[in-house]
Amino acid sequence: MSRSRPDDDLSRDQRKQRTREALMDAALTLMSRGISFTGLGLREVTREAGVVPTAFYRHFQDMDELGLALVEEGGVTLRRLLREARRGGVPLKDVIRNSVKIYTGFVRAHPQEFLFVAGERSGGSPAIRAAVRREMSHFASEMAQDLRTLNILPHLSTATLQIVCGLVVNTMISAAGDILDLPPKQPRAEQEMIDAFVKQLRVIFLGAAAWKESST
Amino acid sequence: MSRSRPDDDLSRDQRKQRTREALMDAALTLMSRGISFTGLGLREVTREAGVVPTAFYRHFQDMDELGLALVEEGGVTLRRLLREARRGGVPLKDVIRNSVKIYTGFVRAHPQEFLFVAGERSGGSPAIRAAVRREMSHFASEMAQDLRTLNILPHLSTATLQIVCGLVVNTMISAAGDILDLPPKQPRAEQEMIDAFVKQLRVIFLGAAAWKESST
DNA sequence: CGTTTCAGTGAACAAATGTTCACACAAAGG
DNA sequence: CCTTTGTGTGAACATTTGTTCACTGAAACG
Fold first, then answer.
1. pLDDT in tens, B187-208
2. Sign of torsion over alpha carbons A51, A53, A58, A61
3. Cβ contact A39 with chain D strand, < 7 A
């Protein structure tokens, strides 16, 4: 047996990407301990990742670049969310409640990424803020297109639909931040927040359905 | 003439409160330079305030306490906003557009406080986050009560009205953050954002008007 | 096999951070 | 008027930070 530890025979690039992920995960882990990304230090992250500080520079020029990578990761998570929702098909009954169920499931499955996105949307460095906003806008666009092909709210102009989806996405992200901030194991309060969240989405879609494009 | 500099004959308490305000203003000023509150250092703040670092402890135990004071200040500003809106009376025509005009005026007049609230809502330390949420919730409650006395959306239960106002407030704060993040002197993009903001509020109120309490 | 490439190491640095302490000195209060 | 009170000072501290540099050793490659 030449190679004893089976998880150790990896190509160089694989190894590199591995510690890169370790760094990103370390940042997310530290954030889930309460500190916001902006308050994180380079050394802190490498320490948590189990790497020497200098190794950081092999992957990112500075913390901002790490942040941007995390934004991108968050973006693909959001895309997977949409795909998953599509795959489930339209329930035709209780669409909103079901979509919210999928969503909250996703938030619970990837708490750190949602915490990051919600927190840095208006908090972090200018570059990161901008990236988060861009990602949220992309997400809203995809959602708008989905609604189009599902023939939901067909009477709305594309511009209006886009704005409505922006409102929905904004509400979604805020709700995620609120839910994840609850002291853990508090199912009563959590259910209340989710119910309020559903109600807000209902109001939005009700308003969008009642919208007349003529109104200035 | 015993007292030469007229701005210098102040009681001890007045002086103390003065440098306290200087510290708070310094933090806000630094934030408007791009850094988020969480990323601010104690020494950085005292330097900007023109005081020696140790003087900080005469007013706050740590940065978190400073942050909480700023949250409270932000809350006061929001209350003044509501009072101002009330004072203007109900325009009866174009209510939303007019309210938004008042609001954006306020945001432009107190950019730093809105930047702080928007940024630390989900970003900062747990204590500060909680305080911001509490203040936003208070604000939503007051708004709900105002709508009640103005006989707007009278068919909604108090609980529903509260939830709708929560949605409105959330949208307001996000919009403030977005608008203040624009590169300055970009009236085209700013007007676009404000128009979208107005449209979102219209959708919300339209939906609230169409709401039937019976729906599960 | 021999050479090159390069992810990760470890020591070292200047700079900045939060916190401490004894002190100054003007207002407050008897 | 003399004493007390307390805001702001200035020097000092132990830590922590971001960044540099020369290095090691194994994978990649010819």
1. 999 999 999 999 999 999 999 9
2. positive
3. no
